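Human: We require from you a standard protein entry with sequence in single-letter code and fold as tokens, and nothing else.

Assistant:
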Amino acid sequence: MTNIVLFGPPGAGKGTQAEILKQKYDLVHISTGDVFRYNIKNETELGKKAKLFIDKGQLVPDEVTIDMLNDEVEKHPNAKGIIFDGFPRTSAQAKALDELLVSKNTSVNAMIALEVEDEILVKRLLERGKTSGRKDDADEGVIRNRIKVYYEETAILKSYYQAQDKYFGVDGVGSIDEITQRLSKVIDQL
């Protein structure tokens, strides 16, 4: 299996690129954002818990996130690999993901981070907010808090994966095709 953690701050283009890479490499794309939205829309217990945090631009607690992710991984027992989009976000989640994948006789092959400047992220998210209907994309204060939380709490994962020689930073600015080519170059070398 080829398992990739696609990483980057909110608005970096993870969802767009994950969909392209999913098709190109025949991988399963698991977006925690999509999983959260599904659970919230369907008002599951996990969804109700997650919504309280998402609406404030905060991270959803690990146990809620991991429970949702495990349910999603279980739906794809014969996958050639998985693109994890938006997970893990903390060292504890990274360790939990490692344990989950080991229990399925596989592991993370690479963490690929899309790197984008903050002001570009804010602009992208406000633009997305005009059409997405997502409350967390429409308020600049919430957006800036999400970016701040990313740097404070999740950027530490860079060192976690660097220690395993699994971290790859990729420039996330340019055309969709240019960014896809940069990502493919990394994946093709795994």
Notes: The longest strand covers residues 2-7.
